[in-house]
Fold each of these.
Amino acid sequence: MLLEILEQNYLMHELAVTENILALALEAAQQANARRITAINLVIGDLSSFVDESVQFYFDLLSRGTIAEGAVLRFRREHAVAICRTCGHQFQVSPPLLPICPNCGDHYLEVKGGQGVAVDSIEVSDGDEAESSETGSQC
């Protein structure tokens, strides 16, 4: 029962973020007087729980009947880096996160990056040619 609730919350979170991605793209396209959104470039952190295929699935459903229908989602993964607050050693981390510095064995770590979802840029078309609209928006 708990697993089902956790899975449902996880899916709802991906759905809400995908709704935000679509809303940002539609707003940017409207500001650019675009007729069509051709691609959306996303940055997704390695430590986030987002699965590319799930975001694409929700986007395909949500974008039906909009100028974003058929747009390509391009995913770029952002790595997370842990910094040991004791010895200063920096190292790349990925799930499952082991809270131990491989250099000194201490547990006092700071993790930077790799945890969010952001729209890096949106490519739109006015009907004849594609143009890029930089957004840099976090979802």
Amino acid sequence: MSNLEKKERLYSRKEMLELTGKSILGVTMAGTIPTILAGCTKEEEKSQGLASANVVEDKDVVFTPDKEVCCTEIRYSIKDGKIANVEFDGGCNGNLQGIAKLAEGMTPEEAASKIAGIKCSTGGTQRNSSCPDQFSKALLQNI
């Protein structure tokens, strides 16, 4: 695979520059977790059949969940490719505090894979989603 260096986590633009002197990345998918190929040139990406990927930047996200769930807003940050500062407005306070603490320090893909598809049945009514499921959607939309 030419001179591509495989890494199994997401890197910030600064880390990529420090590691390789290059900021271009290629990505291959292994299940739902991308494998980052660090230091690809555009020519190497093309020869390997890879699509360009955005480098993970630190960012703050505000997400408005579907009206079907109890929380009205989800806020979190991505710092060095990891989830930080998770906050939910509304919803089951204790449970969502627990989910927020458990998700912190995980990659968005890792956390989303654990909570996607969870359904809620508040008040005896089965819902098609839940606050954790909506958090997984927020994480996946903002990778």
Amino acid sequence: MSDEGEATVSRRPHAVHVRVRAGMSKPHNWVQLAKFCAVGGSGYVVNLCVFALFVGPLGTHHLVAATAAFVVAVVNNFWWNRHWTFDARAGRAGFQAPRFFAVSIGAFLVAATVLELLVSVAGLDELLAQAIAIAVSTPLNFVGNKIWSFAIEVSRD
């Protein structure tokens, strides 16, 4: 391969699995994961409270309740993750928010699928199924937000 070709290859971004593996060896990333889980814990409580309100007193379908709970919790989580977990206040919120919500919607769709399977197929209680579904989608949510929503721009000069 020519020097020009090798230079082009070396400038390509690494595959996601390579970046994730390298990131797992850095203590700072584990601190961020702990913060993300703390924020997620608050969002989890908010989500379950809104969900319980919608399926209980309001009597809505569990998927409608999950959607309402998601909307309320995701706003809470965006603020805390931007300001505390990833300390990304220097970035543009108008740029970060759409990415955060896209990742969150992806994680929500995974969680909604798990919720539906646990309620309709496995016969679990709706609130317990929602709690499990959120836990299942958390790793996807963290990795997506870490490497895309709140990624630090690095110059490759």
